[in-house]
From TrEMBL:
<dbReference type="InterPro" id="IPR024983">
    <property type="entry name" value="CHAT_dom"/>
</dbReference>
<dbReference type="Pfam" id="PF12770">
    <property type="entry name" value="CHAT"/>
</dbReference>
<protein>
    <submittedName>
        <fullName>CHAT domain-containing protein</fullName>
    </submittedName>
</protein>
<feature type="domain" description="CHAT">
    <location>
        <begin position="51"/>
        <end position="192"/>
    </location>
</feature>
Length: 363
């Protein structure tokens, strides 16, 4: 699902639902980013980091959708490097190779010694990248507890319930990413990874554990990349989204997310508690949109998000009014306007550029 381009005089409004008007797979052409993080401090036992990384890259390269993947590797990862990679790459999949403990994974210091990172700290770091994260793999001993915590931040997380050998970690990863590369679901890919351990007679087959975010079905979770399509797929499984809007998303409805910069959250409330999901319609179009906004954001901010999507270069030449039953002031918060999740909201606009405004002549 691609973003709408500038409105033209010939076709002034966007197609109603991009997925329904396109026979291609909804994820086709979208780049999926996999970030491989490796850490093996000099005061820990040696691991075959290079072999696991090579196997993952090889299986992705040999898959049917290899051109849709971008794989980046980072070695001797420190906390600073972890943050740099997450910020600069915006990965959809994060795969950690290294040592772990009951409540931590082990990164490195700048001098190469161990730097433990607790599950709480790891979850806090990953919480800032939820918009892109779909899958996290912690291929480290005793990482299941960390995986449980990270399931709050990603759609699916894989951790290890016990010690895991180098051989098992490598074989599991190879089978898992080969399956993902051929478009299999996360659950199917996980099953193939476990299956390979059993076929090879390795004693670690019951060690990997798949955990998923509440509302996500891993059997339906297929990598979608950092896109509105990916967000739509995720929201279509989110029980916080009203059933009617989930159906819109499953049908390919365009999904919009209000910029975090516009969100004002009181200290006593979490961002999740303040999220609402609205159905947006337009007076001069049959288009339907689902928008995720903060209830304390202003009506004007919500209208601007849609304007920016439809008119990315000239939206400032278009004035909008967001209405439910009557016109609302642009500075009024959504909460004060009485809007709740699932409400249908109509957007009406005032054309200031007649050269691209929709024609009002009758046919």
């Amino acid at each position: 699902m691609s973003s709408f381009g500038p409105v033209s005089a010939v076709h002034p409004w966007p197609k109603v639902v991009a997925l329904l008007l396109d026979d291609r797979h909804p994820c086709e052409g979208i780049l999926i980013k996999i970030l491989l993080l490796a850490a093996n401090p000099r005061d820990t036992g040696p691991l075959r980091l290079g072999e696991e990384t090579r196997k993952i890259e090889e299986k992705i390269r040999e898959s049917s959708a290899a051109q849709r993947f971008s794989v980046r590797s980072a070695w001797a990862v420190t906390i600073d490097e972890l943050l740099y990679q997450l910020n600069s790459f915006e990965p959809n999949v994060v795969h950690f190779i290294g040592h772990g403990g009951a409540d931590q994974i082990v990164l490195e210091t700048t001098t190469g010694t161990s730097q433990p990172l607790t599950k709480e700290a790891l979850s806090t770091i990953f919480s800032h990248f939820r918009q892109w994260l779909q899958v996290v793999v912690l291929n480290a001993c005793y990482s299941a507890a960390q995986a449980e915590k990270l399931a709050e931040q990603a759609d699916a997380v894989i951790g290890m319930t016990d010690q895991v050998s180098d051989a098992a970690a490598i074989e599991f990863s190879a089978a898992f990413y080969r399956a993902l590369g051929f478009g299999r679901s996360v659950e199917a890919a996980f099953a193939q990874g476990v299956g390979m351990l059993k076929v090879d007679g390795l004693p670690d087959a019951d060690v990997p554990k798949l955990i998923h975010r509440r509302g996500v079905d891993p059997a339906k979770l297929v990598l979608a990349g950092a896109s509105d399509a990916a967000m739509s797929i995720r929201r279509a499984e989110d029980p916080r989204v009203p059933a009617k809007l989930r159906q819109h998303l499953q049908n390919g409805c365009e999904f919009l997310l209000l910029s975090e910069k516009s969100v004002r959250v009181p200290e006593q409330h979490s961002a999740e508690e303040n999220r609402i999901f609205l159905e947006l319609g337009m007076r001069q179009s049959n288009a339907v949109f689902v928008i995720e906004v903060n209830r304390l954001s202003t009506v004007g901010e919500a209208a601007t998000v849609l304007a920016q999507r439809l008119l990315p270069t000239d939206y400032h030449w278009y004035s909008w009014t967001l209405v439910k039953h009557e016109a609302l002031a642009t500075k009024l918060s959504l909460a004060m306007a009485g809007l709740r999740s699932g409400d249908h909201v109509m957007l009406v606009g005032n054309h200031r550029m007649p050269e691209w405004a929709p024609s009002r002549r009758s046919r």
